[in-house]
Specification:
single chain, alpha/beta, Rossmann fold, six-stranded mixed β-sheet, four-stranded antiparallel β-sheet
């Protein structure tokens, strides 16, 4: 039986962060629990990526504390953290022309002993990650010769090969077309539902967030405006407060989730 503390993925207490004296996040208090897929939304510059980087240990808060899996985040070694947590960045960049398969294989490194080569079981994991993300045919191609959307799918495949308990997505579908966006989100959602992969995603598209996320966290100017179940917080009032647009939110029987339409406020 999982205790209450074991049920908590992250606990952020009075977290603040800024760059060069400019505040980006102010007094962030959050508890993210197992069993929900979370979406972080807000306008450009609201601190979404910064919050994700703090949760992933890439940044250190100026003030406050962050616990991950009931341990202070700074107490985790990089290798131990990488065994639990994988990040898919908004823009995936590899400067050298490694074959796609080798880049995906890099996801296994946190689980391998130093200088150890992947075994047969590891190769199967790589094959599956390539297949699930639809890039098996690109396995031998240098990653520097891929389109932006293809590179993004490589980033997802590498994260899946990493076998994390928790996946952080930073606008991971921003370079993908509609088909591949839905395909990747369906894949990750399936891993969440069937294998217990926990997901926290920074997203821009409110309708994709409605489809993908159980819980939403809205940020504006470095502060949490609201958070809670998607069906409760995805409202015209919250959207207007966060984005400054008028919105209509309706159940959509075609997608089986809430659909958002929006426009600029009407002027007299």
């Amino acid at each position: 039986m999982i205790s209450e503390n074991q049920d908590i993925l992250w606990r952020l207490t009075d977290v603040a962060f800024g760059y060069n004296g400019t505040s980006v996040l102010e007094t962030i208090n959050l508890e993210l629990r197992r069993g929900y897929s979370y979406g972080i939304l807000g306008p450009n510059g609201s601190g979404k990526t910064t919050l994700l980087d703090l949760m992933g240990g890439l940044l250190t808060p100026d003030r406050g504390t962050i616990d991950f899996l009931d341990q202070p985040l700074p107490s985790w070694t990089k290798k131990k953290l990488a065994q639990k947590l994988a990040l898919v960045p908004q823009e995936f960049t590899v400067r050298f022309g490694y074959p796609v398969r080798e880049v995906v294989e890099m996801g296994l490194h946190p689980h391998l002993h130093r200088f150890a080569a992947p075994n047969e079981q590891d190769q199967t994991i790589i094959d599956e990650a390539l297949r699930l993300t639809g890039i098996s045919h690109l396995a031998k191609r240098p990653v520097t010769r891929l389109s932006g959307g293809e590179k993004q799918r490589v980033a997802v495949a590498r994260a899946l090969a990493q076998k994390p308990q928790v996946l952080l997505l930073d606008e991971a579908t921003s370079n993908l077309d509609i088909h591949h966006s839905l395909e990747i989100l369906h894949l990750i959602r399936s891993r969440f539902e069937k294998q217990g992969l926990q997901v926290v995603a920074v997203m821009h598209d409110l309708n994709l967030a409605s489809f993908f996320c159980d819980q939403l966290i809205f940020l504006k100017q470095g502060k949490i405006i609201c958070q809670g179940p998607t069906r409760e917080v995805l409202t015209p009032e919250n959207i207007k407060q966060v984005y400054g647009v008028e919105a209509e939110v309706r159940p959509n029987p075609f997608t089986n989730c809430r659909q958002v339409s929006f426009r600029l406020p009407m002027t007299p």
